[in-house]
Amino acid sequence: MSESNPSSNVEANPLTGGEAVVSDKVLADRAMLQKAQAEGKTLGTYIKLSGPGWLQSAITLGGGSLAGSLFLGVMGGTSMLWLQLVAIVLGVVMLSAISYVTLSTGRRPFEAINNEINPALGWGWIIATVLANMIFCMPQFSLCYDALDKNLLSLGGGEGLGDSRGVRWAVTMVLFFAAGFIVLLNTKQGRAAKVFDIFLKTLIGMVVICFFGVAILLLAKGQLNFASIFAGLIPDLTQFVRPAGELRESVANLSPEASSFWTGRLMGTQRSVMISAIATAVGINMTFLLPYSMLARGWDKTFRGLARFDLSTGMAIPFVLVTSCVVIASASSFHNKIDDQLASSDVAVMQTSPLFEKVKGDLTARVDSTLGAEAESTDEATKLQMIADLPKDEKLLAAALVKRNAFELSQTLAPLLGAERAKLIFGLGVFGMGFSTIIILMLINGYAIREMFGRPNSQTIFIVGVLIAGASGASWVELWTDPDKKFWLAILASTFAVMLLPIAYFTFFLMMNSREILGEDRPTGGRRLGWNVFMGLAVIGATASAGVALYEKYLAPDPLSFRIVAVIWVAYAIAVALGFALKKKTPRTT
Fold first, then answer.
1. Which H or E element spans position 10?
2. Distance of alpha carbon 283 from alpha carbon 288, whole angstroms
3. Are residue 304 and residue 364 in the same domain, yes or no?
4. β pairing state of 10-12 and 19-21
5. Could you write out the DSSP letters of every residue in 72-113?
């Protein structure tokens, strides 16, 4: 891509490879940046021109991040605050590398990977992105519906939306068309694109304010322990093999038999939650969105510093603030806590606990492990009494395995925040997270489908891609509410999205070190060493997470899911090997 030339608006279009008329706004932005860089006063200009980082923030602050943060707080209290912080820092490093490669070359990453690295890596990356967009869009629609039903439309004594299939479809279609309209604004130049940016930043700002406000209110009520919060920011890798937070002490206080049982029970879930939290910080579709959103804005080498600033402020800071506040609020409400009814040794009282049915399975398994061969012949009443007689620490551990949601959290904090205020804050925050993610998933899919068809300048194919993701997400009414279908969809998504992320990272690691791709822009000396160290850590972290995820599937009670994942991975590994062996470079079109 050519450098900015104030005397001419014609230069190479990175999305098509042909000539393109660059808008006056892009030229003005470049001139503004060049002037700020020459004067050494870039902060104000960076803030004014930021954009793609906020797109990343809109997708990373979704239902997955919310669920992961909630469960981290339940299981580890504030001792797991470090996890998402480390994940997002490494994610920003890798996304910064992606932006550097893209803006230095002006080439579309899909084309560059296929021609210069390995077409199997390029196609695997784009297929995983499309599948992730289509599948992960479903829970975002569900999340928005629940926020309206359980919080926003139940304010002031309202009855919410209910469980009617017809109402679900009606609300879903309104969300679908509203999100589609907003995505199309981003394709326009001038005021429409500006409205899109402002809307998205406002939505992210609302999410941050809502959850940060909860933390401030908890602080005002004296519910926060700053010593434990700061301690939780220090990485603790032993949490991958030992229970976290106060649960570690609870397990240590038990008999060897009970300790062994609960450690085994806890660690499978705890590792899964940790992997989920890492995976939702930076997803594979985010690695696709960033370069194409920058190219679509006309960014080039001049914008490389802005890109790094944008990722750090527009994506990382909102993500860390929101997820940390959710973890803190969840820890305050649920970690190592049960109600008096569940703690009771009276069977009748224990059964009145709202948590009892949710913990009954794990507590019954604990009793059965004690009974051994006699478990099958022991009557229900005797088992219930044995459950009631279990130490409080064991009931606390069982409660830690119960998944909570934002609506339960808002109810728990109602005495502190006020019932209506809690509903409003959590309703707005959760709806904002879900709706912003729907918008971005649809946007990414438009770019990806366009690339798959080799028509990077086709507005028609872009709209088709947007509608495919939106329609898939809208199908949550039929698919995501069915536990069996949801299970297999989750396996499909995790196989391609979570486990392919380290391959995407490794691909961009190779691109950052490729002289064929970067030429004179390839970092050298200390800068190259720094990039490689931090990118290497990101690759190792993503690979470890994918490995643990695969191991958890191996240990799962359903061996079929592991076999499916293993077959897909063996087939893909063969495709990658053949891609390196048979790849022939094609002439660059840009």
1. strand 10-12
2. 9
3. no
4. antiparallel
5. HHHHHGGGGHHHHHHHHHHHHHHHHHHHHHHHHH---HHHHI
Are 455 and 468 members of one domain? yes
8-state DSSP, 11: E
Q: What is the pLDDT of residue 189?
A: 61
Evaluate whether 133 touches 438 at the Cβ level (below 8 Å): no
- Identify the residue whose tokens are 């007689």: 389
Chain Cα centroid distance, residue 579: 30
- Continuous H helices in 221-351: 226-231, 247-252, 256-281, 284-296, 304-310, 317-334, 340-343, 347-350
State the pLDDT confidence band at 423, using cuts at 50, 70 and 90.
confident
- Asked if residue 585 belongs to a domain, the reply is no
The reply to whether 291 and 253 lie within a common domain is yes
Integer Cα distance of 132 and 124 in angstroms? 12
Question: 10 Å Cβ neighbour count for 242?
Answer: 16
Q: What is the distance between the alpha carbons of residues 130 and 126, in angstroms, rounded to a whole number?
A: 6
Outline where 344-458 has alpha helix (H). 347-350, 356-371, 380-388, 392-400, 406-412, 414-417, 419-452
Identify the domain containing residue 470 by its residue range.
48-337+403-580
Instruction: Please count the CA atoms within 13 angstroms of the CA of 222 that sit on its side-chain side.
Output: 0
| 33, part of any domain | no
* Cα–Cα distance for residue pair 447/305, rounded to 1 Å: 24
As a three-state string, the secondary structure of 518-540 is HHHHCCCHHHHHHHHHHHHHHHH
Model confidence pLDDT, tens digit, residues 487-520? 566 656 655 566 778 888 888 898 899 888 888 8
Instruction: Provide the pLDDT for residue 446.
Output: 93
Helices (H), 297-345: 304-310, 317-334, 340-343
Mean pLDDT in residue range 564-575: 83
Assigned token pair, 400: 């830690």
Query: What is the spatial distance between Cα 438 and Cα 445, in angstroms, rounded to a whole number?
Result: 11
Of 35, 495, 62, 11, the C-alpha closest to 289 is: 62
Q: Is 9 helix (H, G, I), strand (E, B) or coil?
A: coil
DSSP 282: S
Q: Give the tokens for residue 91.
A: 């994610």
What pLDDT, on a 0 to 100 scale, did the predictor assign at position 281?
75
If 0-12 CB within 10 Å is exposed, 13-18 middle and 19+ buried, where does residue 520 land? exposed
